[in-house]
Amino acid sequence: MDKESRSGVLLGAHGGIGRALLTQFSTDASIEHIEATHRIPLYSEGEAKKVSWRTLDLECADNIQRNTERWCASLPSLDFVVCAAGVLHDGELKPEKRMQQLREHNMHRLFQINAAGPLAVLAGLEPLLKKSHQPKVMVLSAQVGSIADNHLGGWYSYRMSKAALNMGLKTFAIEAARWRNDAVVMAVHPGTTLSQLSAPFVRQRKAPVRQAAETAAHLDQLLKHADSAHHGGFFTAQGERLPW
Ligand SMILES: NC(=O)c1ccc[n+]([C@@H]2O[C@H](COP(=O)([O-])OP(=O)(O)OC[C@H]3O[C@@H](n4cnc5c(N)ncnc54)[C@H](OP(=O)(O)O)[C@@H]3O)[C@@H](O)[C@H]2O)c1
Predict the structure, then answer these.
(1) pLDDT value at position 144?
(2) Average pLDDT over the chain, rounded to whole?
(3) Fewer Cβ atoms within 10 Å of its own Cβ: the N or the C terminal residue of the chain?
(4) Which residue's C-alpha comes closest to atom 25 of ligand 1?
(5) What's the pTM value of the predicted model, to 2 decimals?
(6) Which of 39, 89, 188 to mutate to test the pocket of ligand 1 (most atoms within 8 A of CB)?
(7) Which residues of the chain fall below pLDDT 70?
(8) What are the sequence ranges of the domains in the chain?
(9) Distance, CA of 46 to CA of 38 (rounded, Å)
(10) What gap in Å lies between CA 118 and CA 115, rounded to an integer?
(11) Are 26 and 47 in contact (CB under 8 A)?
(12) What is the pLDDT of residues 148-186, one digit of tens each?
């Protein structure tokens, strides 16, 4: 294998930002192989041969375990794991405007998909991350998950799930700093980007909304250049530090 070539896992590779990231990674000569995940079975749709699709549902612990065990058995190491999966609304599940709209079931679903699921994947992939000389973990969080930056209120379940994700990543980063390599673990707010997730909320928005390809280009650069200065931090896609 070429010394410079990297291989990685991209969760949520068929979402708005995920799909654009997959396009970006597919044309990157320094990336040799990508394990791309989606909830329903998908087969390569004209992507480079280096993309393998896997079915992974972050709500299903058995499915997460099956996937991570298979990866650990079949891959020599992992140089990056990017999570572009996440949920804000889904059918009856809508961001709450008021406390009275809190529904325990919805809260649990968001917590599972946005926080517990991605962390369970990372736990399963730890043996492969430890085998790379500089493994990079980039999980898409959201600025509304910042406790320090919460000035508007609302969106309880989403905010809480992303705050939980952030704490999980920060804690994982402390543990990964003890590995015998230069691991980089970071939470990233991609910025408001046109996608199925953001569509209902950007119609009235005056501030510019980015296209997924532009966001993906920033995220790709951030991933490529991330180093020890980024380890254990929360950043915008352009690499500016955000408060937890
Ligand atoms: N777009 C924005 O403005 C914005 C702003 C801040 C943060 N973010 C964050 O950025 C990430 C990507 O968002 P996006 O805008 O690209 O949203 P999107 O287009 O709705 O894509 C979301 C992705 O999450 C996956 N997903 C949802 N539930 C899942 C589950 N149970 N198991 C596995 N995968 C699941 C979807 O998979 P399927 O394709 O299988 O449905 C899809 O790939 C999310 O974490 C989001 O919170 C986005």
Answers:
(1) 97
(2) 94
(3) N
(4) 85
(5) 0.97
(6) 39
(7) 1-4, 42-48
(8) 6-236
(9) 16
(10) 6
(11) yes
(12) 999 999 999 999 999 999 999 999 999 999 999 999 999
Q: Ligand 1: which residues within 6 Å by Cβ?
A: 12, 14-18, 38-39, 56-59, 84-88, 113, 140, 142, 189-190, 192-193, 195-198
CB 34 within 8 A of CB 10: yes
Residues 6+ apart with CB under 8 A from 173: 183, 185, 186, 231, 232
Task: Name which of 197, 193, 187 is nearest 239 in CA terms.
Answer: 187
Amino acid in position 165: L
